[in-house]
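Box 3.1 A note on notation
Throughout this textbook, protein chains are presented in two layers. The first layer is the amino acid sequence; the second is a token string describing backbone geometry. Keep the layers aligned when reading.
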Amino acid sequence: MTLVRGFVSLGASHNVRNWEAAALELKWLDDYIALIETGSFSAASERRHISQPAFSRRIQMLEDWLGVTLIDRTRKPLQFTPVARDNQLEFRHLVAQIYEFRAILKSESLDSAGITVAAQHTLAASYVPGFLVRLRDLGLDQNFRIRSENRSDSVGMLIRGEAEILITYDNQQSPCNISDQLALRHVLGQDELQLVASPSMHKTLRTVDKGESVHMLCYPPDSFFGQALRAEVLPDLMRRQQVIVRCVSEFAMGLRELALIGQGAAWLPTSLIKDDLARGRLLPLKDLGHSVPLEIVAFFAILTGERGEFLKHSFNRITGRTLSDISTEVN
């Protein structure tokens, strides 16, 4: 408790010297943790990259600051005092909490100063990491915050100004309908919903006769994937086969896990399962149902100020076009 109160009193002060002392005392705590873990002054000082005499002085300064003795210097080899032994776990927790608190503060600071990217759940996992690497490779250095949402919510975030970039699927049957005055649109690539199954289920379904049952993993009818499949492929499958729905979920990643353990066939984005296809963990069922093409699209919000300039520059670098080119195309 003495240790915790000491840090609180230092943190409450705005005196520069106190803050410098707090930084030093955190180093002393790191030294002490190293001593606990190594059990020797020589090994601990080597880990902390300082000389053994300097390390010993820092441990003594920590003891002076705490007002307790941590090391029994009358005994060899190294012996901790009873109060030190009884509070070793608290020392570890305190240091971990300090660093965790600092990381949280830094993270919140980066979030407030960065660009928010809203993305559909599947694309947030399978596509957005590579997209951000691409931005950085183009020299677009910025802090990003990723928001994984369903399609309607991610589109809503862009429209309400809660996100500056939207990464989403788009198709003719269910377009995003985001105004050109609100955001710049660019097609990043192509994807498709592909009907697949585990090897064991594939063996059964690839030769299934007309009218026989097919166990399926499906999306809700009002979800984006559900609407795309019902517009293009599901009615035909239901006319030919007795479809038994084993699970309904709007999360393609969840349906993928169920498909992998043979719970049913599912239409899944190729970008999500390309490794499964390459390794033979999932196999396509092209004769049972054809694929549904999708576009992967990015929307860059049209804003004023510094963020707006960054977004315009990012869009130009990604597309290789200038804003004058875009204005000519729109006109």
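The mean pLDDT is 84. DSSP finds 16 helices and nine strands in the chain.
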